[in-house]
Amino acid sequence: MADFLLWAWLGGLMIAAIAGPLGSFMVWRRMAYFGDTLAHAALLGVALGLLLQVNISLAVVLVCLLLALLLSTLMHTRLIATDTLLGILSHASLALGLVSLSIFDHQNVDLMGFLFGDLLAIGVQDIIWIALACGLVLAALVPLWRPLLAITVNEELAQVEGINVALMRTLLMVLVAVVIAVAMKVVGVLLITSLLIIPAAAARRLSSSPEQMAVLASLLGMLAVSGGLALSWFYDTPTGPSIVLIASALFFLLFCFPRSFRLS
Amino acid sequence: MSNVLLQATNLGVKRGNRWLIKDVNIALEKGQITTVIGPNGAGKSTLVRSLLKLINTTNGDINTIKGLRIGYMPQKLKLEDTLPLTVARFLDLGRHKQHQLSPQLWHDLLHECRAEKLLERPMSALSGGETQRVLLLRALVRKPHLLVLDEPVQGVDVTGQVSLYNLIVQVRDILGCGILMVSHDLHLVMAATDQVICLNQHICCSGHPEQVSQDPAFTDLFGPQGAGNLALYNHQHNHHHTSHGDIIAGEHHEGCNHG
Do B122 and A208 touch (CB under 8 A)? Predict the structure, then answer.
């Protein structure tokens, strides 16, 4: 097997693993549209990174974080409905990102790679970045799991019980931003949300506890990455969309399963 | 003074240019059941939510004993069906690291709430009454000093309501906690209450149930039928409310806050 394929597979697996629990939170908290907005802002991060000649992943994380903070502040003021706000920011940042990227010489910027992912171009250095980011997110998730779950069930109950709801909400956004920054390599900004949402939604049918759903989502995501890579390798299809396609196929397959089939 | 768990003075919440509640003074004591009653839109939930510090107050202070543990039972719980959660797990999320009920007591409470058989059920598969009992248990699991119940009998049929109120009194006796309860039905609550606060933006009257039921402000709020046989006599209320609940200017306001 070619080296680059191994790196691609390894990187994809790590990201799918970490996307499982975070994607579950996004499904539980109805954050799909929010994820899209952050993902689109990631393109702006790429442009900014190129412009200022800093590490692109770092620029993406920073831009996502800024947007996440901006979003939570604006949502709090309740000037306009949340979905309208998300719709505006999502497409405004996508457009701004595309326009800014067009300034650069086309030979140096792989726009398609950013939009749809370029998993096969992953190198050792990327793997180290991905491993660091995933390790960080995982290490943060362990102590945060219970409070995050508590605010997901009911924010008011959690607050009365002494959990800092605003802080937890912000931390979750930070974690999602980090995952989006690294997952951009795999499926690109346009499809990131699907890598987070689809495996989690598919896992719902089989799970009877939150933890089960998170772990299953990771496993299904890893399966989708493996299948998508294979599809891409044998039939020369674009890798990112192939992964999302396999994930969707898994979702529909599990959807047809009888609901009584549950792990206990 | 030593029995007071939470004391609020001159509490006011203003949204836009309208006062949702104003000049509310309230003291919640250990072992005592306080019930807030009032018509719809009187600011009952606003009062509860400001005492719980879920919303910001415009005026006033809230003082509590140090390390006050509150068990809160919200009006209703909306759970996403996408979250697979059993009743046992839901209850566990409310557990306090240090302050836990003894296994025996927990077992008793589970029994009283008829929830032993619910533990393995998914939260999404509970009926209205079952959800209320589970929510009550969730509020109890952290061994609270103060139990706050916002319309605890909502969505429960009449026989269920009686047993739920009985349950609440039992819980007070077992845990010795203070209880703040919101309700808009009068008769059932009266029997289970030490102190009634009649709220319509401001406190119209407060005191022991019998005392309050004879208060003109009480009859004024609920009408003779609403006050029912609780009110033994009627006389004229000394002020009137506009449709917004504001006291009409020019009339004196003395005697509105009864002990």
Answer: yes
Alpha helices in chain B, H assignment, sequence order: 44-51, 87-92, 103-112, 128-140, 158-175, 187-191, 209-213, 216-227
ipTM of the shown complex: 0.82
Query: Chain A contacts of B72, Cβ < 8 Å?
Result: 156-157, 160-161
Cα–Cα distance list, B166 to A4, B72, B104 (Å):
69, 18, 20
Select the more confidently predicted residue: B115 or B185.
Answer: B115
Contact B84 A152 (CB under 8 A): no
Whole-model pTM: value is 0.84
The answer to whether residue A241 scores a pLDDT higher than 50 is: yes
Mean of pLDDT values over B106-122: 84
What whole-number distance in Å separates Cα of residue A148 and Cα of residue A210?
A: 11
Q: Which residue has the tokens 């009627």?
A: B234
Q: Which of 3.40.50.300, 3.30.70.100, 3.30.1330.10, 3.30.230.10 is the CATH number of B1-68+145-259?
A: 3.40.50.300
Name the band, by pLDDT with cuts 50, 70 and 90, for residue A209: very high
Q: Please provide the average confidence, as pLDDT, over all residues in chain B.
A: 79
Does residue A71 or residue B62 have the better pLDDT?
Answer: B62
Q: Are B86 and B121 in contact, with CB atoms under 8 Å apart?
A: yes
Q: Which residues of B touch A154 (CB under 8 A)?
A: 74, 77, 79
For chain B, the domains span 1-68+145-259, 80-143
DSSP state of A257: S
- For residue A198, what pLDDT is reported? 95
CA distances from A209 to A59, A229, B130 (A): 36, 30, 20
Using a CB-CB distance cutoff of 8 angstroms, which residues of chain A are in contact with residue B80?
28-30
Residue A82: pLDDT over 50: yes
Q: Which two tokens stand for residue A1?
A: 């097997």
Residue tagged 């952290």 (tokens): B142
A263 close contact with B: CB closer than 8 A: no
What are B's interface residues with A at a Cβ cutoff of 8 A?
52-54, 70, 72, 74, 77, 79-80, 82-86, 89-90, 93-94, 96, 122, 138, 142, 148
Domains of chain A: 3-188 (1.10.3470.10)
Q: Give the nearest partner residue to B94 out of A159, A161, A201, using CB atoms.
A: A161
Residue A114, CA distances (Å) to A89, A97, B126, B147, B163 in order? 19, 11, 46, 53, 62
